[in-house]
Write a structure and sequence with these properties.
elongated, 12 helices, 0% strand, 207 residues, mainly alpha
Length: 207
């Protein structure tokens, strides 16, 4: 009986070691559509960490060699915020800019926001407006809101007010608090514009 008990304990111990030594389950690489959704929810960095940093080499390759804008954005954020790689802010911002050059709205909005508040780069309202305007034109609501706010603060050119008003006025927003915030910003911008221009900006947009 003692021999049997000892054998069972030894077997359980061996099985436990074997189980602990099992390799991590392979993680599937993110599709472009999946990655865009993660970026828009601001959960892309959390996802990389939750996947135990297994995809770092694949992400880096798709950013640097394949030059996919979503992966450039992801890798840039990883570098800037020390997620699964050694922190390198300069290289991180470089990849953010590469993604923005390819027209990724989320990258354009983020760089515009960073230039507005002075995060990772020196604050520059002019540069902020350049990036935000490009993102706003693609329908990025956070960029539209920040752009209108900057115009209300006296930055930018009055010639651009109409487009900014039109984009934000026709934005679809479910959250009531955000909807009210948009209404307040639009009301302030309308005071800087002739009534005829405001009326024109409110006309239905042809798709």
């Amino acid at each position: 009986m003692r021999f049997l008990l000892t054998s069972c304990v030894l077997l359980a111990s061996v099985m436990g070691v074997a189980k602990a030594a099992e390799p991590l389950e392979a993680v599937q690489l993110y599709s472009q559509d999946e990655l865009v959704k993660l970026i828009r929810k601001n959960t892309h960095l959390k996802r990389v960490k939750d996947d135990d940093c297994q995809l770092v080499q694949d992400i880096a390759a798709r950013a640097s060699k394949m030059q996919l804008p979503t992966y450039q954005f992801l890798y840039g954020d990883m570098l800037a915020y020390n997620v699964c790689v050694e922190r390198d802010v300069e290289l991180g911002v470089y990849y953010m800019r590469q993604a923005a050059k390819q027209g990724l709205a989320e990258a354009l909005e983020q760089l515009g926001r960073y230039y507005d508040i002075g995060r990772l780069v020196q604050a520059d309202k002019g540069m902020a407006i350049i990036y935000l305007r490009e993102a706003a034109a693609q329908g990025n609501v956070p960029a539209q809101m920040r752009l209108v706010k900057l115009y209300n603060q006296g930055h930018g050119s009055p010639q651009d007010y109409e487009d900014a008003y039109r984009w934000l006025f026709h934005a679809s927003v479910a959250d009531r608090a955000q909807h009210n915030k948009i209404a307040r910003q639009l009301a302030l911008l309308a005071k800087k514009m002739p009534d005829s221009v405001v009326a024109r900006a409110r006309l239905p947009v042809d798709n």
